[in-house]
Amino acid sequence: MAYDLITTQIDNRNNHSSLQTLDTFNVGQFYANANLFPDKLFDLKGQPLRMSIFNYPPYNVWWEVPPGTGNANLDGSEDGKSLFVDGTETLLALEFCKLYNCTLHIVIDEEHTWGTVYDNGTGDGSLGNTYERRSDIGVGGQYSWHQFHFFLDLSAPFTRSAATVMCPKPKQRIGLVLLVLPFSNMMWAAEFATLFACIMAIILARLASSRLHREQPVVSTSSTWFEVWAISLLQSRNFVLRHLPETIITVCALISSMLIASAYSGELAGMTTVPQFEEPIDTNRQFAERKMKWGAWHHAWVTSLEDAPDPIVEYLFNSFELISTEALGTRPYSDDFCYPLETLQYGHFAIGDFLTVEKTSFLRLIRDDFYWGHVVAYQYKTWPLKNLYDMHVLYVVQSGLFKYWETCAAAKYQNWKVQLAIATSRRKDKPMPISLQIDHMSGVFIIWGIGCGISTAVFVSEIFFVRFYRKIGIPVQLEGLSLSIKHNRQFYQ
User: Fold this and answer.
1) How many angstroms separate the CA atoms of 391 and 38, rounded?
2) Are 135 and 129 in contact (CB under 8 A)?
3) How far is 238 from 252, CA to CA, in rounded Å?
4) Digit-coded pLDDT (tens) for 227-240
5) Cβ(287)–Cβ(366) under 8 Å?
6) Number of C-alpha atoms within 13 angstroms, CB side, residue 434?
7) Which residue from 104, 88, 127 is spatially nearest to 46, judged by alpha carbons?
C-alpha cells in the first residue's frame, strides 16, 4: 500500500491551505527520496507581517504618502504602499520582509501609544493590539517588562536603553548663603562652641578672682558676650582687665580670632570672586532628597519601577506625573520638575518635541539612570515566525547595522542641536574671576540692616521704659548695656 506524504504550501497572501505532495512511501521506500521537512518559511510569498507602531523617533517614524510610493501598507487599507516608515525597529522589520518575501502592514494607534493589557482580556496600543492579535508584533522602544510576559512573547533584544531625566541646573549662590560657605557645618559648630566656652571662662575667671582678692564682683553677662563677639570680629574694644587669668583668656581669644578671621576672610574673598553654585542633582538619591518631580505622557515610563522594594526607587515611582506632550511643551520652568528622555546604546537620546534648545539651556542631564533595560518587540504567543525573527535580530545586531540605523534616524528625525545640548549639559566651564556685584554683598547688607533694626528697636524701648518708670516714680539709670532700677523704699511703702 502506498502513502502520499503531503504538507501545506504558502501560495499567496490570501491562500493558506493549498496542499503539496512531498513524496510517496510504499513497501519501505520513498519514490522521490525528497526532503520531508522543507523550509516553508524561507519564501513567505508576500504574506503580511502586521506591526503595531506609533511615532517615537528614533525607534519608529511614519507618514502617509501617495499610494504606491511608500515602503509599507496601512493595515486594513486597500491602497498599497501608502505609508513611508523609518526608524530602527521598522527598518529591522523591512529588512526581514525583504529577506523572507513578506509584506509589512502597519497598525497605528497614536492615541494609546504603548497601551496596555487589561484584566478583562482586552488591550489597546502597541501591547494591546499584539495581545488581541490585531498585529503580529508590537514595537516602540519597549523594555522586557515582567508584567506582560504572561500574555505576550518577547523577541531577542535589539539594543540597550535607559530612562533618565533632565533637571534644572544648579543656581548661583548669593546673599546670606554665600556668607556661611567658607566654613563647613562642623567648623561653624566649633566656632560657636569656642565663643560660648570663652564667655563662660571669662565670667568664671572674674568671679574667682574677685572672691580670691575679696573684691566686689563686677560681672555682666551681656557685656562679656559683646566683648568676646567683638574680639571674634576683630573689632576694637576697651578691655578692663584687673587680673592675670582674665588677661590670659582674652589674649588667647584674640590670637585664635585673628587666625580664624583671616582664614574666613581669605576663603570668602575667593568665593565672592569666583561664582559659587548649588550642588547639582547627579544621583537618584539626590533627586529624592530634593523632593523633585518628573512626568511623561504614558505610564510605560514607570512600568519598570513598579513593586520595587528600594525606598529611592519607590519615590521615583510616586513622584511621576501623567502629563501630555503638549502640556510638557508649554509647562513653565520650575525648580522642582524634571523632563524625561531615553539614553540610547550608541550615544544618542530619544527625546520628545517638548525639549527645545531654549529649554535645555536651563536643564542638566543627571548622571544616574532611573532604570535601564533591553529593547524588545512583543509578539503574540504561538506566532510561527518568532524563531525566524529572533535569528534575524541577532544577525542584524552582530553586524553593527543597528548602530548605523540609530545614527541615521537620530540625525534625520531629532533636533541635532538639542542632542548636542543634552550631551554637553554636564560639562563644567572653567570659572573666571568676575567683578563684585550687589548680589554678592547682599548678605552683608541684610545682616547690617537686621542689626540696625534691632538696635533701633532696643533704643526706642529703652526710652519708653525710662519715661514710663520715671512717670510712676521709679528712678532708673543706664548702666552700660542695661537699665538699672534703683529701688525706692518709700515708693514701695
Assistant:
1) 18
2) yes
3) 16
4) 777 777 777 666 66
5) yes
6) 12
7) 104
Q: How far is CA 206 from the centre of its chain?
A: 59
Instruction: Estimate the crossing angle of helix 401-413 against helix 416-423, to 10 degrees.
Output: 110
pTM: 0.73
Question: Which grid coordinates are listed for 461?
Answer: 524701648
User: Is pLDDT above 60 for 491?
Assistant: no
CA nearest to 375, candidates 60, 128, 116 = 60
What single-letter amino acid sits at 5?
A: L
Reduce the secondary structure of the chain to three states and give it as a string: CEEEEEEEECCECCECCEEEEEEEEECCEECCCCCCCCCCCCCCCCEEEEEEECCECCCEEEEECCCCCCCEEECCCCCCCCEEEECHHHHHHHHHHHHHCEEEEEEECCCCCCCEECCCCCEEHHHHHHHCCCCCEEEEEEECCHHHCCCEEECCCCEEEEEEEEEECCCECCCHHHHHCCCCHHHHHHHHHHHHHHHHHHHHHHHHHHHHCCCCCCCCHHHHHHHHHHHHCCCCCCCCCCCHHHHHHHHHHHHHHHHHHHHHHHHHHHHHHCCCECCCCCCHHHHHHCCCEEEECCHHHHHHHCCCCCHHHHHHHHCEEECCHHHHHHCCCCCCEEEEEEEECCCCEECCCCCCHHHHCCEEECCCCCEEEEEEEEEECCCCCHHHHHHHHHHHHHHCHHHHHHHHHHHHHCCHHHHHHHHCCCCCCCCCCCCCCCCCCHHHHHHHHHHHHHHHHHHHHHHHHHHHHHHCCCCEEEECCEEEECCCHHHHC
Alpha-carbon distance of 26 to 4, in angstroms, equals 9
Distance of CA 63 to the CA centre of its chain: 32
The predicted-structure confidence for 379-426, as pLDDT tens digits, reads as follows: 999 998 999 999 999 999 999 999 999 999 999 999 999 999 999 988
Cα distances (angstroms) measured from residue 95 to each of 45, 72, 389, 395: 15, 12, 11, 11
Contacts of 462 (CB under 8 A, 6+ apart): 478, 483
Between CA 228 and CA 239 the distance in angstroms is: 10
Q: List all residues 6 or more positions away from 468 whose beta carbon is below 8 Å from its beta carbon.
A: none
- Cell 511614519 -> residue: 62
Please give the Cα distance from 447 to 176 (Å, whole number). Answer: 8
Which residue has cell 540597550? Answer: 160
Strand-pair category, 102-108 with 73-74 = parallel
Q: Three cell numbers at 393?
A: 535580530
* Of 47, 26, 15, the residue nearest 388 (C-alpha): 47
Q: How far apart are CA 299 and CA 117, in angstroms?
A: 13
Cell digits of residue 135? 498585529
Decide if 176 contacts 446 (C-beta within 8 A): yes
